[in-house]
Specification:
Blueprint: H1 3-12, E1 20-22, E2 30-35, E3 38-45, E4 48-55, H2 58-77
């Protein structure tokens, strides 16, 4: 899965855009961004990266981000998608 495919997946599954940022950083959102050494998925809290996970490739980062978004949707809305 690519970052663009993940964006489409989340949109199709009605995950509110205010919960995440793909390809950068936005305060109080789960973020996925490319770095010099790979990819990172984290919750952005001001300048802190909370729950930081590092990945070597885009597909692994997308799967990590997808997993985090699934947990968030279960917590916030009591619903999610099946794998």
């Amino acid at each position: 899965m690519t970052a663009n495919e993940l964006k489409q997946f989340l949109k199709q599954h009605r995950v509110p855009g205010r919960y995440y940022k793909i390809g950068g950083r936005h305060n109080h959102r789960i973020c996925m961004e490319k770095t010099d050494s790979g990819w990172e998925v984290f919750f952005s809290d001001n300048r802190d990266k909370v729950g930081l996970s590092k990945y070597l490739d885009e597909a692994s980062a997308c799967n990590g981000m997808k997993h985090e978004m699934k947990k968030l949707m279960e917590q916030m809305h009591g619903m999610t998608w099946t794998e």
